[in-house]
Each structure stands twice: as structure tokens, then as C-alpha cells.
Protein 1
Amino acid sequence: MFVDRARIRVTGGAGGNGCCSFRREKYVPRGGPDGGDGGKGGDILFVADKELTSLLDVHYHYHWKGKPGGHGSGNNRHGRNGEDVIVRVPCGTVVRKAETGEIVADLVQDGQQFLAARGGKGGMGNTHFATSTNRVPRFAEKGEPGEDVEYLLELKLIADVGLVGLPNAGKSTFLASATAARPKIAPYPFTTLSPNLGVALLSDHRTLTLADIPGIIEGASEGKGLGHEFLRHIERTRLLLFLIDLGDPDPLTTRRILEAELAKHSPIFQTRPRVFALNKADVPENRLRFDAIRPFFEEPFLISGLTGEGLPELLEHLWQRVDVIRKTPEKESVPEKEYVYEPPFTLERCAGGFRIRGETIVRAARMTDFNNEEAAAHFQMRLRKMGILKALKRMGAQEGDSVFIDTIELEYDPD
């Protein structure tokens, strides 16, 4: 089963809790705090794997969770870090954020990685909170929850040559003759229901990868047929091979239809190099039409996917064209990096009170045990040092007003 789209949710492992502990040893009075830190939660990584050809594995496994970090313990023992979880995807996978559709990664090369969800930070033990005025801190941090993100995965096959043609133009027959691929072949339209990939072996150990997609018909951009749904699989190809049936009553109109549908799908196809091959030369009536059709195409090849006639010459020409493109350095437009100032926190009025946003303060709130009076007092001291309490006062906050930080609701106390 071929799957080229999948929705996936990833949750990084939660960090381990810090430990609240004190050293207890004979003849050593007041040993002091010795609580260890919690371990970091495991990350979720997307890794490109050349052995995979479909998103089938992740299609049936929607939610991936990272391993949690171990809790700290006494004697300053650090909790173990959670193991990372590897999600293997085929080369050519595009990763988008589910909410916005923004592309965040394009995994093209084998072994290429993308950090999909970061594991939570481990909480600090009470050792870190000892000061000259508080030598016996009776609190520790909780572990931070891991990131929770949803992604849309979209597979775009990586091939040298993309086959383009109407249904029953003989693309699957051509692919079967030129490569070891075995696509379904039948005498009716839309036999090919999903993309096929094949590798042609040439002399001197040269290879050429070809991608075949379902036939394209007029109106495909409006949802007709199947070809437009899979056109993204030939977006990465270096060269397009147009297969035209010699028995087509109007091959020039066919060419215009194919080029128009390609342009509607993506502007990148307008500049993509192309080669034309007139197929089904094994039919005598078709062969007689070759000279009349030739002027409508740029140096077309006469081939027969069924008998293999003309295929060696065509494949050699395709390889030479692709080889030139491979050696031509691509012009990379390096976008200018924008430096945007981000304040340490933002404060705004909301229904029922005030809402505080900011990575630092949200992380601190998530890692605070508000059931512990000392931990809550320590968090309020952080609010005061960051200037948040003054900002609330300037905005007219009154004692008892609700203050929201992430999913946590607190009560404003100016003292």
C-alpha cells in the first residue's frame, strides 16, 4: 500500500523531577541539601531513510511519545535522561506544521534529521536553591513537560526523470521495459493509481531513476482524474519526459493540455527541461504518422514501450541531459536573517484577569510545585525580579485578580 500523506502528533518526554533531600551521616550535623536533578526527557526525531518508500509506518501510528527522564535522588544523584525516539520517514518527506501549513523541514538526504519535539528539561534539586539566607530549602523543581506538536507529512519522490502523459499513453509499459519496476498494466484508463519508481541500468554502472504518476487529463487542477493529486511526486525531478501516443488524434492539443495542467499545479514546471517521446511505434498505422507529427515537438524520439524499440537511445539521451543538470551548480538564494527582538514577557488583559506570555516565565511556572509554600514563594520572587509584578500594578491589577500563565491560574498579591 502506497501512502504519501500522513498526520502525526509527537510529544517529547517529560523531564524528571528534582529531588528534595538532605545529607544524613553519622557525626555530620546539618549536612545540608543534597537533592539531585531530574533527567532530561527524550526528544522525537524525524530521520530520512532511503530504504523506505512510503509513509505507511507513520500513517497507522498517529501519536509518538518520548521517553520520560528519571527523577533525581538523594546524595546529588542525577536522574537518567530519557532515550530519544526515532521516527523513520522516506527520503523526500516534507514536514509541515499542522496548524499553519508552514514547511519546517525537507528531508531529502539519507540520514538527515529534524528535531520534531524537544524533551522537557529536568527539574533542579533543592541543592541549587540554598542561599546564605535560606540554607535549608525544602523544595525542588518539577520536570518540564515535553513539546507537543502536530505535523503534516507529505512525500515527494526523488527521481531524475518524471514521466508525463495522458491515461493509456504507455507510461507504465515504458517503465516496465526500461527498469525492473513492475507496475500494473491494463488496456483501460487510470490503471496506475499511485506513483511508481524505477531505476534504469545503463552501461558503465550508470543509473537513471524514473518516476511514473497516474495519467493527467484536462481539468485535473479542478479535481478531475488522478494525475494532479500526484504531480508533487515529480516536482523534484531534474527532467520531464512527455510520452505522447502516436495514435492520438490531436497530439498538439494533448501537449498543450499536459503543459497547462503542469503550470496550474506549480510554476516550477514551466522552467523544467523536457524531452518528448512518441510511443507505440509497434502499431504500423502509428509509425506512418511519425513524420507528420514530428514538427509539433522538439526532436522527438520514436519508441515502443512494448517492444523496447528506441529505448536505449532515449535512455542514453536522458542520462546525458540529467548528467549536465547534475553538474550545473544550483543558484541558492540565501534569505536574509531577520533579527526580531522578543521581550522576556508580554502582559495583556483577558477575560477574567490578566495573561502573561513568555518562554522563560511559562517554563518556570510549569516546573513550580505550587502546593509547596516555599516553591510558590520562590516563584513569586522570580516574578518580582523580572518586573512582572510592577507591570501588573501599572496596568491596574487589584488584589485578588486572576493571573493566567499557560494553563495555570494564580491570584494577584501585590505584597
Protein 2
Amino acid sequence: MKILMVCLGNICRSPLAEGILRDKARKMGVEITVDSAGTAAYHTGERPDRRSQEVAKKHGIDISSQRARQFTRSDFEEFDGIFVMDSSNYDNVISLASSPEEAKKVEYILNMIYPGKDLPIPDPYYGGNDGFENVFKMLDDSCEKIIEKVKSNGLEGS
């Protein structure tokens, strides 16, 4: 199973989601590959935002080796599930899908805990440290559900 996390610049939300899911999978003995990407190329090659690294480290997760990259059409072929952080990410990713099968791979990450609501994970970039902690908690809860689904029956019906 290969899972991709997607936000705008791939320096705040999606690197946190990648790190959290990878950590949970390792601890639970679940075999998955996790990566992250941004819909824009603003930060390609950069490390995650310092505040994302700090909140992850506070929770025992090191994301400092991650580097930002832009989402590409080939990601549909590479990944089984693509989780986006908000409606802009969703629209940008879906616009690159070339089939209904590819589009079905894309899901709002918060739908894991609030099915069908299409709620956004707020972008903490322009906020304070509390925003990063809040985002971490939402992603942590969502990633817990992803692990449960992967363990039980895969991502079908997400």
C-alpha cells in the first residue's frame, strides 16, 4: 500500500501527515509506503517548515530529512491513496486525474474522522505555534483511522 499526503507547498501539513502516518505504521507493524507533495512548486527541495519540525519532534517524530516536491500526474500511478488537506488541494489534484479510477484515489484526510464532510485541515503557515499543534492533533487522529482501515481492509470505501 502506498499513500501520498498533499497540501499546497509541502512544508507544513503534508510533511506532518507523512511523518505521523509513517511513525504509526512502524509502531503498529503495518507495511505501507508514505510520501508527501505540494500542489505548488514554491518550496521544492526545501525542508519542512521549522514549526512543523518542532511540533513533530515534540511528539517524538523526526521529519527533518523530508524535502518538498510538487505533485505530478504520475503520482496517480504510483500511489494507492492520495489524501489532500483542503478544497484547493482537492481541486488541483483532481484536475490532473485522467480517469474516474484515478479520481477515486483522492480523499480529504479529515473524511477519515468526519466521513463525507470534506472539511479542511487549516494551513498553519501564517499562524502561531498553536496552529501547528492543532493541525498535528487533527492529522494524528486522521492517520490513526488510516492505519485502522489499512489493517482491516485497505482504503476501499474511504
